[in-house]
């Protein structure tokens, strides 16, 4: 029983972190209709920022959020403005050029990080890195609990933003029908730039919150990019609530897979769920909940 | 006939190459180029001509390589049988995958291929009793000299190019392109798009698997991270395809040459040229430059992708053709 | 016509490539002796490649200052394998056919080493393996391959003795990363445990870079093993220990199988969770070989960062190379091989002598050590005669450390 409960707790907590990674991706995929294969690499950039702030200026990672999120917002806008938007005007045979472009961006970000920081492992040690709360024998990692709360807060905030504000409505309009939105006078290029910025800022939050309990090296992005698109497909494109569901589902699936099947299969479980959802539940949880 | 003169002349140059260039190091690089011609042709068939971008070529490449390796390792047969069977096993993987996943379109199909790539890598890693896991499979190469490998690789490259040429000038080719241009329109005029996408994928998988078995025979050693590598195989295949020219028969050949050359130039610091310059000038700046250039090879790949997509979206061959057409 | 012109362009592309062939270096009369070294200098393994490279360079500089090999200096030509077998192979091809090296050394990751060995054997170029540790490397009967470092199956030699004499565990859980080093090492260790009557109750691999080891540790904790043996790289090692502490998981002892558990980063990242953790290792600066401590200090002084067993292997290799080249009749592969066979040289890494035992040929056999983290310091605790501190066992529960 203890094994079961502890696995459940571990899975849900990790799921919260995954949700945070997934929310940014789902927004980008929903609005732009492209798969951002540089998502994990953007997170890596945010983590390096956090590391630098902590290591050289002694700024706590939770405070570093105020720097890493705006910085990544700018990076995201830059990428969209100068690298992705121009592609819409380029005449090419393959419509997937944008996806390939994000692969190129991912490689460049990774290698620039390697140039500056080398391949060494870096980490940030804070007082709460190893802190845990106990309920009976069951442990709750403090940093993961914070990340979970943050994910819930951010997605609630984002949900409100998308529903209540003009900008949010414009974003949803572009994601539903780009051309119709343009006819209604929405500058869809601008909306896309902003959306990419928000998506990047969200994943920056994930990276900054993850760093105290994890570590950092230039190649860290790849696996998280893969997890992000699994979560997004699970939750449904453009659905913030879906991203939370998707993240927690993936976290639970990995945790139970690792405990009851084998840690070997941790990554496989996610990929297989991914293919199954693509095939049997296209649209993800969004389809079930309509949110 | 005139149309074939250029390639034929070039083929003669390639046949004479190992006789003229005796240095095994260059022969080795040319073997890699020829292997990438086959892989690039496969990718180009499914992605460039049929429009179904694949991020998972390594799944087929690795299957081919493991087929050859396991034949030798488990059954004690010659790994050369892999050349016959590697492609077939790659098709055996491709068939059910395509059957299921071709319901997905565009970028979603691309993601599914990426997932296939990872699933295959994990399987090969975990299934130690069959694949030896990360310990890998080692066979002794048949020949010490590179020349036999060179000609086998050349044969595979030529077969790939010819089969793409033949397929693309047949009715299948038109179906493939029509699927790429507008799948719904293709469907509405009675093309069984699912079937033709399957044909294209299986052909591509066959060529890629063939290259994989060549790799096993030539390199003599494989492990899951080498042959199922997302970066070194799948993404390299895409680069070969797009740099050379998406949807052109000879594009992958040019792309393979450029990519192998670029990667080797950076790895060796301009074939040691930079080091000679450093030694000659003795300036500390050159030492730094040499160090960075050597480390920058993946960065260059990334920048190359961005550059090619922005400014040469149809690759060297495609772009060149196009600019000529507009004159 | 179109195609024709296209072909012409391709030929034009090839011509500069062919021209490069003419750039072979001109052989001067008084050449240094060239020795090829293949190491990962970029990519994920670059950190250790760098330590080895520095050690090679430090060693060769000392040798050349002392007069080199009978007056001729040794020139190391160091090639980057990027941690990839095919790149390593290209690099070796280049070293043999273009640089005309007389022998090869280096070889970090097992897979790259494997690929290099096959080329060395085919091209009949002697290869002194420095680090590649897969058992199979010296089990192929290759005449031109010699190995300085112990194979992975022998890493826990000292640990086994310690277990037999002191701990006497009944059950063991083996956790390993899914790499060649992890898979091969865990298989060998599990086999050795079964032979000595220790039951392996959990044996599981994981993908390097996992965020959360808790599900795995929960399962292991529930199985209640006496001993947990982990083959993990440094950051995974730190996370495993941190999360074990968080879960309050108290087996009789935690032992690392070399690799990550002995590095300074491990204790930095694991913090208190590293305390009293054991690890198998091949080398520490306190080993009873002449020059070991001096090598460590010199390295620290010169490069400003600590070195570890990989560096010692590299430093020892270059001295073996010197010794071999001095004794070789001439610089043909056959004579160098002859000389390698007769090697009997004391190095900072221990005595080097190539023998054949079990299935292995031309393999150097060395004792290994057991170390323990005590108050943030890595202390050698086994074998007893070289221990810097007595071992702390039984290990108290987390709450009492």
Q: The CATH topology of chain B is what?
A: ABC transporter involved in vitamin B12 uptake, BtuC
Structural category of chain B: mainly alpha
Distance between the termini of chain A: 34 Å
User: In the CATH hierarchy, what is the class of chain B?
Assistant: Mainly Alpha
Q: Number of folding domains of chain A?
A: 1
Compute the number of structural domains of chain B: 1
Q: Which percent range describes the beta-strand content of chain B?
A: under 5%
For the biggest β-sheet of chain B, the strand order reads 1-2
Instruction: Please tally the β strands of chain A and state the result.
Output: 2
Number of helices of chain A: 12
Classify the helix fraction of chain A into a percent range.
Answer: over 70%
Secondary structure tally: strands of chain B: 2
Which descriptors apply to this entry?
heterotrimer; A: 291 residues; mainly alpha; two-stranded antiparallel ribbon; B: 327 residues; ABC transporter involved in vitamin B12 uptake, BtuC
In short:
The complex is a heterotrimer of chains A (291), B (327) and C (401). Helix content of chain A is 74%, strand content 3%.
Q: Can you characterise this structure?
A:
The complex is a heterotrimer of chains A (291), B (327) and C (401). Chain A has one domain (2-219). Chain A is built from 12 helices and 2 strands, in the order H-H-H-H-E-E-H-H-H-H-H-H-H-H. Chain A has helices at residues 2-32, 39-57, 61-84, 97-117, 142-164, 166-176, 178-183, 188-210, 221-235, 240-261, 266-280, 284-289, and strands at 132-135, 138-141. In chain A, strand 1 and strand 2 form a beta hairpin. In chain A, helix 1 runs antiparallel to helix 8 (188-210), helix 2 (39-57) runs parallel beside helix 4 and helix 2 (39-57) packs across helix 9. Chain A is globular and about 60 Å long. The model of chain A has no long low-confidence stretch (mean pLDDT 87). By secondary structure, chain B is an all-alpha fold. Chain B has one domain (23-326): Orthogonal Bundle (ABC transporter involved in vitamin B12 uptake, BtuC), CATH 1.10.3470. Helix content of chain B is 80%, strand content 1%. A two-stranded antiparallel sheet of chain B has the order 1-2. In chain B, helix 2 runs parallel beside helix 7, helix 7 packs antiparallel against helix 10 and helix 12 packs parallel to helix 17. The longest helix of chain B is centred in the middle third of the chain and has 27 residues, at 193-219. Chain B starts with a helix and ends with a helix. The model of chain B has no long low-confidence stretch (mean pLDDT 86). Chain C is of the alpha/beta class and 401 residues long. Chain C folds into 2 domains: 33-150 and 288-364, 3-Layer(aba) Sandwich (Rossmann fold), CATH 3.40.50; 156-281 and 368-400, Rossmann fold (3-Layer(aba) Sandwich), CATH 3.40.50.2300. The model of chain C is unreliable at 7-29 (pLDDT under 50). In chain C, the strands form 4 sheets. A 7-stranded mixed beta sheet of chain C has the order 7-6-8-9-10-15-16. A 5-stranded parallel beta sheet of chain C has the order 2-1-3-4-5. The longest helix of chain C has 20 residues, at 2-21. Chain C contains 12 helices and 16 strands. Chains in contact: A-B, A-C, B-C.
């Amino acid at each position: 029983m203890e094994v079961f409960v502890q696995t459940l707790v571990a899975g849900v907590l990790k799921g919260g972190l995954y949700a945070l990674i997934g929310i940014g991706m789902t927004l980008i995929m929903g609005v732009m209709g492209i798969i951002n294969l540089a998502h994990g690499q953007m997170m890596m950039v945010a983590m390096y920022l956090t590391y630098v702030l902590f290591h050289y200026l002694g700024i706590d990672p939770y405070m570093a959020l105020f720097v890493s999120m705006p910085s990544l917002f700018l990076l995201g806008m830059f990428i969209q403005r100068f690298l992705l938007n121009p592609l819409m005007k380029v005449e090419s045979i393959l419509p997937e050029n944008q996806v390939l472009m994000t692969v190129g961006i991912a490689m460049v970000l990774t290698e620039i990080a390697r140039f500056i920081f080398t391949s060494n492992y870096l980490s940030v040690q804070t007082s709460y890195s190893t802190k845990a709360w106990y309920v009976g024998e069951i442990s709750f990692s403090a940093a993961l609990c914070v990340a979970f709360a943050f994910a819930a807060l951010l997605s609630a905030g984002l949900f409100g933003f998308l529903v209540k504000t003009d900008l949010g409505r414009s974003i949803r309009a572009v994601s539903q029908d780009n051309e119709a939105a343009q006819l209604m006078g929405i500058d869809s290029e601008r909306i896309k730039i902003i959306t990419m910025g928000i998506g990047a800022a969200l994943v920056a939050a994930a990276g900054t919150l993850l760093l105290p309990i994890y570590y950092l090296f230039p190649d860290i992005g790849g696996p998280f990019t893969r997890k992000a698109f699994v979560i997004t497909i699970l939750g449904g494109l453009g659905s913030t609530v879906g991203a939370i569901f998707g993240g927690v589902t993936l976290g639970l699936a990995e945790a139970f897979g690792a405990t009851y099947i084998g840690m070997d299969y941790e990554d496989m479980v996610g990929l297989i769920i991914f293919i199954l959802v693509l095939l049997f539940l296209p649209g993800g949880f969004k389809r079930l909940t309509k949110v | 006939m005139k149309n074939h003169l250029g390639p034929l002349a070039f083929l003669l140059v390639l046949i004479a190459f190992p006789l003229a260039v005796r240095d095994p190091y260059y022969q080795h690089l040319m073997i890699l180029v020829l292997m990438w011609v086959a892989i690039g042709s496969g990718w180009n068939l499914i992605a460039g001509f049929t429009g179904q971008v694949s991020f998972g070529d390594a799944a087929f490449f690795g299957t081919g390589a493991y087929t050859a390796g396991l034949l030798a390792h488990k059954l004690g047969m010659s790994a050369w049988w892999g050349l016959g069977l590697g492609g077939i096993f790659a098709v055996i993987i491709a068939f059910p995958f395509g059957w299921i996943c071709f319901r997905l379109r565009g970028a979603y199909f691309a993601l599914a291929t990426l997932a296939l790539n990872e699933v295959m890598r994990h399987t090969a890693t975990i299934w130690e009793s069959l694949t030896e896991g990360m310990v890998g499979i080692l066979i002794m190469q048949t020949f010490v000299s590179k020349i036999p490998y060179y000609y086998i690789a050349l044969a595979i490259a030529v077969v790939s190019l010819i089969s793409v040429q033949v397929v693309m000038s047949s009715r299948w080719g038109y179906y493939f392109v029509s699927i790429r241009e507008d799948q719904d329109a293709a469907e509405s005029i009675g093309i069984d798009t699912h079937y033709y996408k399957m044909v294209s994928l299986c052909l591509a998988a066959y060529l890629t698997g063939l290259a994989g078995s060549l790799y096993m025979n030539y390199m003599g050693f494989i492990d899951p991270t080498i042959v199922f590598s997302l970066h070194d195989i799948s993404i390299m295949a895409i680069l070969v395809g797009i740099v050379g020219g998406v949807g052109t028969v000879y594009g992958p050949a040019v792309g393979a040459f450029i990519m192998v050359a670029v990667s080797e130039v950076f790895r060796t610091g301009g074939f040691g040229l930079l080091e000679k310059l450093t030694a000659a000038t003795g300036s500390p700046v050159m030492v730094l430059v040499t160090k960075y250039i050597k480390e920058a090879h993946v960065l260059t790949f990334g920048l190359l992708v961005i550059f090619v997509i922005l400014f040469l979206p149809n690759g060297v061959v495609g772009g060149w053709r196009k600019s000529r057409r507009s004159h | 016509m179109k195609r024709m012109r296209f072909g012409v362009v391709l030929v034009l592309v090839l011509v500069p490539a062919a021209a490069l062939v003419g750039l072979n270096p001109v052989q001067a009369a008084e050449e240094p002796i060239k020795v090829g070294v293949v190491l990962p200098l970029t990519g994920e393994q670059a950190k250790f490649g760098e330590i080895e490279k520095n050690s090679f360079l430090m060693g060769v500089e000392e040798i050349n200052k002392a007069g080199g090999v009978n007056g001729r200096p040794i020139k190391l030509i160091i090639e980057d394998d990027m941690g990839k077998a095919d790149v390593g192979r290209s690099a070796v091809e280049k070293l043999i056919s273009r640089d005309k090296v007389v022998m090869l050394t280096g070889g970090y990751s097992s897979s790259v080493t494997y690929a290099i060995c096959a080329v060395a054997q085919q091209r009949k170029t002697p290869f002194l393996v420095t680090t590649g540790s897969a058992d199979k490397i010296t089990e192929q009967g290759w005449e031109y391959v010699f190995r300085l470092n112990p194979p992975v199956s022998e890493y826990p030699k000292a640990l086994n003795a310690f277990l037999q004499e002191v701990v006497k565990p009944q059950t063991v859980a083996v956790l390993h990363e899914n790499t060649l080093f992890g898979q091969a090492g865990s298989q060998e260790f599990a086999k050795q445990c079964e032979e000595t009557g220790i039951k392996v109750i959990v044996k599981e691999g994981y993908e390097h870079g996992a965020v959360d080891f808790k599900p795995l540790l929960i399962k292991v904790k529930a199985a209640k093993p006496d001993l947990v043996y982990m083959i993990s790289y440094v950051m995974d090692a730190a996370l495993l220990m941190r999360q074990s502490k968080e879960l309050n998981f108290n087996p009789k002892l935690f032992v690392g199988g070399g690799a990550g558990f002995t590095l300074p980063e491990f204790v930095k990242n694991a913090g208190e969770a590293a305390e009293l953790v054991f690890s198998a290792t091949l080398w520490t600066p306190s080993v009873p070989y002449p020059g070991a401590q001096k090598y460590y200090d010199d390295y620290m002084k010169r490069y400003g960062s600590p070195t570890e067993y990989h560096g010692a292997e590299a430093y020892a290799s270059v001295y073996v190379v010197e010794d071999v080249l001095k004794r070789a009749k001439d610089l043909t592969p056959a004579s160098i091989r002859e000389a390698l066979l007769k090697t009997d040289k004391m190095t900072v890494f221990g005595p080097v002598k190539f023998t054949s035992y079990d299935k292995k040929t031309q393999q150097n056999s060395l004792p290994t050590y057991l170390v323990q983290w005590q108050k943030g310091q890595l202390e050698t605790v086994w074998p007893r005669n070289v221990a810097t501190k007595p071992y702390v066992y039984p290990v108290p529960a987390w709450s009492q450390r």
